[in-house]
Amino acid sequence: MILYYYKSYYIKAEKEGKNMLFTSPVFLLLFLPIMLGIYTLIPTRLKPSAICIFSLTFYGIANFGNPAALLFLLLCAIFTYCATFAVFSVRKKYVMVFVVCVLVGVLAVLRYLGVWADVSAAARYIPIGASFYLLACFSCIMDVRRGDAHMPRNFADVLIYVTYFPVMIAGPVIKYKNFETLIKPENIRFTAAGVASGIILFARGFIKRIAIAALLEESYDSIVDRLLHYTEEPLSIGVAVILAAILLVSVYYAFSGYSDMGRGISAMLGIPLAPDFGACILSFTPADYANNFLSSLSLWIDDYIRRPL
Q1: What are the residues whose beta carbons fall under 8 Å from the beta carbon of 268, sequence distance 6 or more?
Q2: Does the pLDDT at position 283 exceed 70?
Q3: Do residues 260 and 208 make contact, with C-beta atoms less than 8 angstroms apart?
Q4: What count of Cα atoms within 13 Å lies in the side-chain half-sphere of residue 26?
Q5: How many C-beta atoms lie closer than 10 Å to residue 108's C-beta?
Q6: Computed over its alpha carbons, how large is the radius of gyration of the chain?
Q7: What's the confidence (pLDDT) of residue 253?
Q8: Which residues touch 275 (CB under 8 Å, ≥6 apart)?
Q9: Which of 13, 283, 5, 49 minimizes the C-alpha distance to 154?
Q10: DSSP states of 77-132 as a string?
């Protein structure tokens, strides 16, 4: 059953231009094994640099049909590196306001295109994971500005953080002040036990995405298709509630699956990350739901938006 839904999911992903995500055969059978094999042979002191190269390679392949995406990612990293110096050396509010306006403006344009562009145009022009690495850019600048993190020693420090591919698709959202500690060579714990636990976590996320989310997505599409083509009666409240529940659960398991896969890959690299999803489906209030759905994003918003305001 898993293979059947994996096949249908992958065909759909290819049509949308998502041919190098964590669930693709290219990633599972080629990229991940080769990466782990090379990573095993690399000395600990060079592992952060290797992670940066792996991340850029992954991102380049994932956006193979959109070569400008890699350039956009590098421009974001360059802007972040320059902005950290600006906000640290020039302690003026207008500098930080300018930086925030640039990042928010870029994010707003990408979200607008994502909503109104058709599937093929979105796959061609909108970089994969742009929302998450733009949040990373903001976190790096803000943490340096507030003194919560050290100034980047060089451009490579910013590039490693912004391009860290395990969290690029669906999180967790890692703050720069936490990442600069995690990525230090002395803190990377690359062990057989860590790789094994990462594989188990990755497999759990894979099952969530393929066996549960893909099944629910197909059921939702099938029901909607039948309603549109075989009946002219208005949608009843009961059917609407069922459709909303199916869609809600499928979105949860899709994001949760990708998050678990990302955390699993990070654990394989010797950088364990905290869980990002709770039992949000069982939440009783919208606030509880938001805190349990991509909780790292809720903490990010609390740290960088709500409390400063």
Answers
A1: 36, 194, 195, 198, 199, 202
A2: no
A3: yes
A4: 12
A5: 10
A6: 20
A7: 87
A8: 263, 295
A9: 49
A10: HHHHHHHHHHHHHS--HHHHHHHHHHHHHHHHHHHHHHHHS-HHHHHHHSPTTHHH
